[in-house]
Amino acid sequence: MAAVDEAIRKAKILVEALGWIRQFRDRYVVIKLGGSALDDPDSVRNCLSDVIFMEAVGMRPILVHGGGKAISRAMESAGIQPRFVHGRRYTDDETLEIVGRVLAEEICESLVDEIRRQGGQAVGLNFRSQNVLEGERLTLAGDAGEQIDLGRVGEVVNVRREILEATCRSGSIPVLPSIALDSDGGKLNVNADTAAAAVARALRAEKLMFLSDVPGIFRDRTDPSTLISHLQSDRVRALIEDGTIDTGMLPKVDAALDALDAGVRKIHIVDARVPHSILLEIYSDKGIGTEIVR
Ligand SMILES: Nc1ncnc2c1ncn2[C@@H]1O[C@H](COP(=O)(O)OP(=O)(O)O)[C@@H](O)[C@H]1O
Ligand SMILES: CC(=O)N[C@@H](CCC(=O)OP(=O)(O)O)C(=O)O
Fold it and tell me: What residues does the Aspartate/glutamate/uridylate kinase domain cover (predicted)?
């Protein structure tokens, strides 16, 4: 009897998901995997199995990844001290070679390999294969209006969406590192949160999901009961101003607000360490992280 009850419970879960599966069929979902999540192989495997599931039930997932922690480790092994200016890595030519190798060769290839190992199809799209992100150098102004030199740091100015659309149509999951090419074919190091938002904006994605190593946005980071499950964009601005949101969460919420302004329906910040956090967030009636809407 217990076995039958268990089977019925599982069937109910499938039925609960059916409505969401229908609603999101053929919709683009951009998933950003951050360096914090990428450092834990179990989190990566679990996230990728969810992404494969999404593709199998008719959604169009696109993976955009960072790898800031791995880049810093590789720089330190090469005897270069990482330096961040306004949250961006100062990127000289030597650093750029390391960023290209770590993101496009090591991390992108390992994500594609793992998706294939789990029975899904994936294609790495970057300057080594087929480039999707076109960029230009990012210029930031200092307090006195002076120009801040970030080296080869860029922002995305165009996304070749036709390549993403064709890849998704063919049943493959596109995997993109946060590197853009400028009009001369030179590499630019782009913050991965902003790269993911640029992709979501270009595709008018249904969702943009940030997978990190926190359950979501907290009102008080020392108190787990203060997780905010639903946020409206105007409230996000207030949380930035009062200092509740800072450090690594800042580029995520900045990118989230940009994406919402451009027509992306919903932003999710979820914990990559929780098994199946993506599926729980999308296909169940009650999500587990923080969702942000306009
Ligand atoms: N209000 C907040 N709630 C939760 N995390 C926050 C908040 N403000 C800042 N953070 C920080 O943001 C970090 C996530 O950003 P980051 O480490 O850069 O992630 P990733 O590597 O996934 O891009 C969290 O580990 C936490 O320290
Ligand atoms: C310009 C800039 O800062 N680029 C980032 C790109 C990687 C990234 O953003 O990785 P996470 O998502 O893991 O932080 C960097 O070099 O660290």
Answer: 28-271
Question: Could you tell me if residue 80 is inside a domain?
Answer: yes
Mutate to test the pocket of ligand 1, among 247, 274, 277 (most ligand atoms within 8 A of CB): 247
Residue 11 forms part of a structural domain: no
On whether residue 70 sits in a domain, the answer given is yes
Look at the chain and count its residues: 294
For 76-105, how does the pLDDT look when each residue is reduced to its tens digit (9 = 90+)?
A: 999 999 999 888 999 999 999 999 999 999
> What band does 133 get if pLDDT is binned at 50, 70 and 90?
very high
pTM for the whole structure = 0.95
Give the Å distance between the CA of 66 and the centre of ligand 2.
5
Q: Is the ipTM of this complex over 0.95?
A: yes
Ligand 1 center from residue 237 Cα (angstroms): 16
Count of the separate structural domains present in the chain: 1
Helices (H) and strands (E) in the chain, counts: 11, 18
Residue 97's domain is classified under what CATH number? 3.40.1160.10
